[in-house]
């Protein structure tokens, strides 16, 4: 039985992750801590359908006091047990219509996509150290790949790309620091999904498809993915035309 915590679980991909986990047997998933900044009817409804297993927790990744308060609530709920898996999903994608020179949102993007991830990890690390699986999945994107930056230039979101590249580096640093404690830190790419942050109906995958494939990667045993930048595996998308192939391989940094 494993316990999970998901940030940014109020809608889209994060909500799909919470629903997928809640649908699994209690023998596999004991608790799902689904966090959000404010009230969220969809999460509350899920919690009602899964009493005791899905716990809604208020958490703002830009506020360290909020993160500490959430960690205390989770610790109490775990009743002496550790947290097994942390999924850092909360993020923001901001645009600059005239390219990088017009970018005025880098500080906010860094606060949410990098500092927020760091603050959540270090606050929950003592609980993760008590857990049995010791896994942290930081939700990333191939748009944060420096190697692939020219092919991704069509999307005018430089702050998103830059901050995700920094988050990827943060992931590697945590992976190296904690590997002797049997941790796995991955920068996981869940694909281009039909969400508000993603591409709407133009995107490749539904949030449910992305969530299932992402959990398949997170469920992998061992530390093979520690410090890695894996893409999800979706049948039929391994050799798709265009920029997006979901073949389970590591993306280029």
Structure characterization notes:
The structure is a single chain. The chain is α/β, with parallel strands linked by helices. The chain has one domain (2-218): 3-Layer(aba) Sandwich (Rossmann fold). Helix content is 37%, strand content 13%. The chain has helices at 12-23, 41-49, 64-78, 106-130, 158-178, 207-218; strands spanning 2-6, 29-36, 54-58, 85-88, 135-139, 184-188. Strands 3-2-1-4-5-6 form a 6-stranded parallel beta sheet, sandwiched between helices. The longest helix is centred in the middle third of the chain and has 25 residues, at 106-130. The chain is globular, with a radius of gyration of 17 Å. The mean pLDDT is 95. It holds the Pfam family adh_short. InterPro entries: NAD(P)-bd_dom_sf, SDR_enzymes, SDR_fam. Belongs to the short-chain dehydrogenases/reductases (SDR) family.
List SSEs in N-to-C order: EHEHEHEHEHEH
Arithmetic mean of pLDDT:
95
By secondary-structure content and strand pairing, the structural class works out as alpha/beta
The first-level CATH class is given as: Alpha Beta
Share of helix, binned: 25-40%
Sequence stretches where pLDDT stays below 50 over 5 or more residues? none
Number of domains: 1
Query: Over the alpha carbons, how many angstroms does the gyration radius reach?
Result: 17 Å
Biggest sheet strand line-up = 3-2-1-4-5-6
By CATH, the architecture is named: 3-Layer(aba) Sandwich
InterPro entries: NAD(P)-bd_dom_sf (IPR036291), SDR_enzymes (IPR052184), SDR_fam (IPR002347)
Pfam families: adh_short
Family: Belongs to the short-chain dehydrogenases/reductases (SDR) family.
């Amino acid at each position: 039985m494993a316990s999970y915590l998901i940030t940014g679980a109020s809608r889209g991909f994060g909500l799909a992750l919470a629903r997928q986990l809640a649908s699994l047997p209690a023998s596999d998933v004991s608790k799902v801590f689904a966090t959000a900044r404010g009230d969220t009817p969809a999460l509350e409804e899920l919690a009602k359908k899964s009493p005791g297993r899905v716990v809604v927790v208020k958490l703002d990744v830009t506020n360290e006091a909020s993160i500490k308060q959430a960690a205390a609530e989770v610790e109490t709920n775990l009743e002496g047990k550790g947290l097994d898996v942390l999924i850092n999903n909360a993020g923001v994608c901001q645009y600059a219509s005239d390219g990088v020179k017009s970018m005025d949102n880098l500080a906010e993007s860094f606060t949410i996509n990098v500092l927020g991830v760091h603050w959540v990890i270090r606050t929950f690390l003592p609980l993760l150290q008590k857990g049995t699986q010791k896994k942290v999945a930081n939700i990333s994107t191939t748009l944060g790949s420096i190697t692939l930056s020219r092919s991704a230039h069509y999307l005018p979101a430089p702050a998103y790309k830059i901050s995700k590249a920094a988050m990827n580096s943060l992931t590697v640093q945590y992976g190296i620091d904690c590997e002797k404690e049997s941790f796995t830190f991955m920068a996981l790419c869940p694909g281009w999904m039909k969400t508000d942050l993603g591409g709407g109906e133009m995107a490749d995958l539904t949030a449910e498809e992305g969530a299932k494939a992402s959990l398949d990667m997170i469920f992998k045993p061992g530390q093979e993915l520690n410090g890695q930048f894996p893409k999800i595996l979706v049948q039929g998308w391994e050799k798709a035309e265009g920029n997006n192939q979901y073949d389970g391989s590591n993306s280029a940094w």
